[in-house]
Every structure is written in C-alpha cells, then in structure tokens.
Amino acid sequence: xxxxxxxxxxxxxxxxxxxxxxxxxxxxxxxxxxxxxxxxxxxxxxxxxxxxxxxxxxxxxxxxxxxxxxxxxxxxxxxxxxxxxxxxxxxxxxxxxxxxxxxxxxxxxxxxxxxxxxxxxxxxxxxxxxxxxxxxxxxxxxxxxxxxxxxxxxxxxxxxxxxxxxxxxxxxxxxxxxxxxxxxxxxxxxxxxxxxxxxxxxxxxxxxxxxxxxxxxxxxxxxxxxxxxxxxxxxxxxxxxxxxxxxxxxxxxxxxxxxxxxxxxxxxxxxxxxxxxxxxxxxxxxxxxxxxxxxxxx
Length: 298
Ligand SMILES: [Zn+2]
Hints:
Shape: globular
Mean pLDDT: 90
Strand order of the largest sheet: 3-4-7
Order of helices and strands: EHEHHEHEEEEHEHEHH
CATH architecture of the largest domain: 3-Layer(aba) Sandwich
Bound molecules: zinc ion
C-alpha cells in the first residue's frame, strides 16, 4: 500500500477515532474516508485511536471489526493499536495517566468542581426535550444543559487526590461566544451557558468524559486537524474551552454532514441494515458505498 499512502512528508496529523460500541455504518464510512483523503492529500500522517472508554458499551470485537471494515474500504493509517507508533498506546482505555494529568491541571486551575447529582436528580431537574430523539445513544453531543445545582457561587480550587466516585464539571464562562471556522461547514458560533452548560470532564463511574479524553489525546498525539461528524460541532465549542484551560493549541476542524435514513433520522449503530458488514454481505463494494448518493441532514 506504500504507493497509495506513503510515509508522511508534511506536519499534518489527522486521526480516525471510532468508538467500538457497535458495527460501523455507511455514515462512519463516509467520514473516515474523508479523514483519510484529507491526510493523504496533505501528505500527512493518519492515526487510528480506539475510543473505548465507555465500560458498559465498548467491546473488543467491535474494535477489531471497525479496523477490519475500514481496511476493507481501503483506508490505511500510519499509527494505531495494530501498528504502534511514537504516541502509543492508541487505545483510550490504556491511557488513564494522560487523562488524570489533564484532570489535575483543571482542578489546580480552578476550572472544575465536583457534582454529586445522581442521574435521577438530573432527570428530575431537566425537561429533557430530546429524550426520545432517535439515535440518542449514538450522539455524544446531546449532553443536556446542567441546571447548576452543584456549581459554586464563585470559581474555586477544590482539593482532591483522585476524581473517584463523583462527576467533575467544567465551569463554562456564561455568555461568552465561542466561535470557530469549520473547514467544511464555515463559521460556527455557540454561546456558553446558553447553547451548552457546565459539562462533565470526569464521570462518576471513574472514566474521563469524551470531551476531556479527546482534547488530551489530540494534544498528546500532536493532531493538527480533526475530521468528524457534524453531530460533534457543539462539542468542538466545549473542547475549545478545554484547550484554552489546559494550554493546548486548537487543531483545525472539518465536520462532515451526517447521513440520514429514509425517514430523515441520523444513522445510529442500531441501523444494522446499513452497517458496513451487512452491505458487504449483500455484495456491495467499497466504491458502491462511497459513491452512492445518500441524503444528508443539512
Ligand atoms: Zn450536581
């Protein structure tokens, strides 16, 4: 494959970051293909990072299947769980020290506070208008507005040696507009405290949140451009705040439009009929999958 994907000769570093909670579907295929193309066009490096932090939903067989499906599509990467590399390990469940260091830095800087709300407390406090949205589990960007129950009146530095057993939330600067230019979707703007509230950086079940792990890894792995689905646009605003608090440089962003099913709903991993596995079994080729004219959300 050397001729198709040569060794990097530029400083561009992109990544593929599947979460192994189900089989990849045609929407993932399009996004990962875009990430691969952009890395290849930039003569850069592409990193495979397995985002398996959710202990209840992640499975080793899905991680294997994701890499196999992406290889079948024709996608290749320079660094990853199967290849090693200078920033190993490339499996998030093996990178706890990286995330703990970031958590400590946020703690010492007075950016986070402990939240003892139970899931039930939050459900009661929130109207949760998106409760029945299809594909909810799939969307990592649906963190509801936190009502502020545990937020201290003033920012404060808490002392703790370990995050164990409670949620830790990032205190967002209420009213501040977070703006960025997306390389695919153009200028974006979200207002802290209105479009999103204080978000979790460390979960009560003792794993870092998606937001924290993502920025800590993108910084540690020297990622220069993030290609991912448009469902994560609002998460990008949160991650800009985290990068600023942690002193990390922002990467560039390229968010891909989401593919929808015939009812206009976002694809989720439960859309088994549109999984790459099922399409392949039905005899479709990578070219069929990548060139089909599929409806998108925006
Ligand atoms: Zn709370």
